[in-house]
């Protein structure tokens, strides 16, 4: 599990926990009428849950952007390495041919 996956999982758990707290509180309070203070407190909890959701979504977007950038960098490095291996292989083949010619000339 990547760091990104762990962060997404943690944020989703936090959001689920906030939602569960709100449900529990509403179920507990549904038996009677809510006074202004209780209503304000519950509305604040809803606002806090919404803010937590927005933070979680922003963190997810940020992590996804970072993953895309990292993947692009890995692709670029892979291509550079492939080009370097190709260059070294060509140089090695040229050197092998040169050495074979030298050995053949020496034997004559």
Structure description:
- With 108 residues, the chain is mostly helical.
- The chain has one domain (3-107).
- The chain has 2 helices and no strands.
- Helix 1 packs antiparallel against helix 2 (36-107).
- The relative contact order is 0.08.
- The model has no long low-confidence stretch (mean pLDDT 87).
Question: Can you give me a brief rundown of this structure?
Answer:
The protein has about 110 residues and is mainly α. It has 2 helices and no strands.
Key structural traits:
mainly alpha, 92% helix, 108 residues
When the domains are counted, the total is 1
- Binned, the helix content reads over 70%
What Rg, in angstroms, do the CA atoms define? Answer: 32 Å
User: Which regions have little confidence, pLDDT < 50, spanning 5+ residues?
Assistant: none
What is the strand content? under 5%
Give the CA-based shape.
rod-shaped
Per-chain topology:
Layout: H1 3-29, H2 36-107
Helix pairs in contact: 1-2
